[in-house]
Design goal:
By secondary structure, the chain is an all-alpha fold. It is about 65% helix and about 0% strand. It has ten helices and two strands; from the N terminus they run αααββααααααα.
Length: about 325
């Protein structure tokens, strides 16, 4: 049953990814009518209706050899990549569920765990939103309210499902649902508040907007789904990913303006699946290694030197 569920989750993810391609494209259109998410799909080149079998995830793109059936214009490789990425994330949620397996094997066979099934459904919405927001931010440097604000609301509703955002206290006298809801609310405040503070300080230091307000709402959504501890870890990882990957992209000539949303989304995904080992590494393994190795301080100094050098190169490129 577990294998069937994992394969089914991947197929569902591919179908959701096909819909996300529509969301990503339509929310970038200047005409309000074009931004509607209802109605059938149209070719972005000639406007012809796309037939249902040409919307089959990945396979349709391969069968058409990357060209539209109506006008033979190229279909971007991004379309199957979004479908494959969403399928992989849904498969990961089924194969390595952060809140326990959906199907539990018992003496009577496989039994559905309703709590884990609910968590899977809510987290599927979460990762789908992250995928859509990341690709829109890459194209437009914007994180649309039409996705982030409903995402915050769904994240807070997810708090009604005990365990998704963790619990704010282990006090058994407090109902589990209330502890989970409070954890979700605190996560929203911590994620959005910490990002707003960084944005305010950065804007004051650089005398211009250092971070879009969309990033604040994105982090509020992430905190609502994952809780305050995971929200702070997401911010930490997002800054690292943004500095390293964004810096490399800038050095390769992709511009000095870095959309932060995709790196926050990547940090959230990593936190979702690997929070425990990362926390152990940061607060247990790494301090122990520093205490037992005299070279630790030299390693930190070298890393700081490299980071400063990269920052210097980026600043000089940005002033050209």
């Amino acid at each position: 049953m577990g294998t069937v569920f994992e394969v089914g989750a991947a197929l569902l993810g591919a179908c959701i990814g096909s819909f996300l391609n529509v969301v990503i494209w339509r929310l970038q259109q200047p005409n309000p009518r074009q931004r509607s998410l209802g109605g059938r799909s149209h070719c972005p080149h000639c406007g012809a209706l796309v037939r249902w079998f040409h919307n089959v995830p990945v396979l349709a793109w391969l069968a058409l050899r990357g060209k539209a059936a109506c006008c033979k214009q190229p279909i971007a490789l991004r379309y199957p990549l979004v479908e494959l990425l969403t399928a992989a994330l849904f498969f990961a949620l089924a194969a390595w569920p952060p809140h326990g397996p959906v199907f539990v094997t018992t003496a009577n066979g496989a039994t559905l765990d309703s709590a884990a099934a609910g968590a899977f459904g809510l987290l599927s919405v979460f990762v789908a939103l992250l995928v859509a927001l990341s690709f829109i931010d890459l194209d437009t440097y914007l994180l649309p309210d039409v996705l982030t604000k409903p995402g915050i609301a769904v994240g807070l509703l997810a708090g009604l499902w005990p365990g998704v955002a963790g619990v704010i206290t282990d006090d058994a006298s407090t109902p589990p649902a209330l502890r989970s809801v409070l954890a979700s609310v605190l996560g929203m405040c911590a994620g959005g508040g910490a990002t707003w503070a960084i944005r305010a300080v950065g804007s004051w230091v650089f005398r211009r907007e250092a971070m879009g307000f969309g990033d604040v709402k994105l982090m509020a959504m992430i905190g609502a789904f994952l809780g305050w501890q995971s929200a702070l870890l997401t911010m930490f990882l997002g800054c690292i990913f943004g500095a390293v990957l964004g810096g490399l992209g800038s050095l390769l000539g992709r511009g000095t303006v870095i959309p932060f949303g995709p790196y926050l989304a990547l940090g959230a995904i990593v936190t979702l699946f690997a929070r425990a080992p990362i926390v152990t590494l940061l607060f247990t393994t790494w301090p122990q290694w520093q205490r037992t190795h005299a070279s630790a301080q030299w390693l930190l100094a070298a890393m700081a030197f490299v980071a400063l050098g990269l920052l210097f190169v980026l600043v000089r490129r940005g002033r050209r």
